[in-house]
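Name: 3-oxo-tetronate 4-phosphate decarboxylase
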Amino acid sequence: MSLEQTARTEMVRLCKSLFDRGFSVGTAGNVSVRLPDGMLMTPTNVRLGDLEAERISKLDLHGNHISGDKPTKEVFLHQACLDTLPEAQAVVHLHSTWATALSCLEDTDPDDCVPPLTPYVVMRVGAVKLLPYVKPGDPCMGQMIRDLKGRYGAMLLANHGPVVTGRTLASAVAAAEELEETCKLLVALRGLPLRMLTSAQVAELTATFGRI
Ligand SMILES: O=C(O)[C@@H](O)C(=O)COP(=O)(O)O
Ligand SMILES: [Zn+2]
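Structure predicted for 3-oxo-tetronate 4-phosphate decarboxylase:
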């Protein structure tokens, strides 16, 4: 099977897995995968559980739509992530409940909106940037992500939901799942005195594992 065909098959499988387990409902969310000659993106207004491999949108390296159904309205967001994070091969955007809940809270630190609560969120997700609200599909979001210059592999879009990148689609999906569970803990524990990992503990994890 060609690399592109394998990527299409993997997108169908993992998007269905996210949908079947409730990480995406309705037609919320979108996913992209880097190819040597462009990008695959989920079509707009499609349920992640209903993707068809041959209808997945293909864009060239400049972001022009070249085949498949009309791409997600978040083309600019996906392209900006892939352009500024050369090691990222895939991007997952969801409206998963707890990460979206955290994205609506007033008093989160925009530069570290998912603090290091557990080792696995440090290893899988790393620091998370909160980006200001713009309407879905606004090209401004692409520019805001470009302005981060690749410093964050994961972001929360205020009042909207998470965006997570990964070295493979499977690792981007695993990171999106870990982020969701951590946001659930953070919301559940809100108001209680919290013990976060120290910066020395975070540094030890980063030195030992990097971002897996
Ligand atoms: O929130 C939105 O409208 C988009 O970010 C989204 O999640 C689904 O849009 P499409 O991928 O264009 O269906
Ligand atoms: Zn969205």
